[in-house]
């Protein structure tokens, strides 16, 4: 069992935003992580969605098939993942 925590740092007037993720095993030991900067996105929600989408792509490329994802900052994002039609602005991330 693996859990991946994702997060983003976004500020309205900044030129870039940061995203990151960390994958832990069932004992809590860090196994993989990633962080990078993106050009500024339109909102903190889009930054969080970018972080989640990037983490999912990375872990898929690394061969992880079953991962629980968690975002402490964005419960709205988790609702959007569970019900994409209610969040059309985030369709490209789903």
TrEMBL record:
The record's listing under InterPro entries reads:
RNase_H-like_dom_plant (IPR044730), RNase_H-like_EbsB-rel (IPR052929), RNaseH-like_sf (IPR012337), RNaseH_domain (IPR002156), RNaseH_sf (IPR036397)
Name the Pfam families for this protein.
RVT_3 (PF13456)
- Matches recorded under CDD domains: RNase_H_like (cd06222)
Signal sequence span per UniProt? none
Q: Where is the RNase H type-1 domain?
A: 5-83
Which domain of life does the UniProt lineage start with? Eukaryota
Identification of the protein by name: RNase H type-1 domain-containing protein
Taxonomic source organism: Cardamine amara subsp. amara
Q: What is the lineage of its organism?
A: Eukaryota, Viridiplantae, Streptophyta, Embryophyta, Tracheophyta
């Amino acid at each position: 069992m693996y859990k991946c925590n994702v997060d983003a740092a976004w500020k309205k007037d900044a030129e870039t935003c940061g995203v990151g993720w960390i994958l832990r095993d069932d004992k809590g030991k860090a196994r993989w992580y990633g962080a990078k900067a993106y050009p500024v996105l339109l909102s903190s929600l889009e930054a969080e969605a970018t972080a989640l989408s990037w983490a999912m792509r990375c872990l898929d490329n690394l061969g992880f098939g079953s991962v629980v994802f968690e975002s402490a900052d964005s419960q709205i994002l988790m609702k959007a993942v569970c019900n994409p039609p209610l969040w059309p602005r985030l369709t490209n991330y789903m």
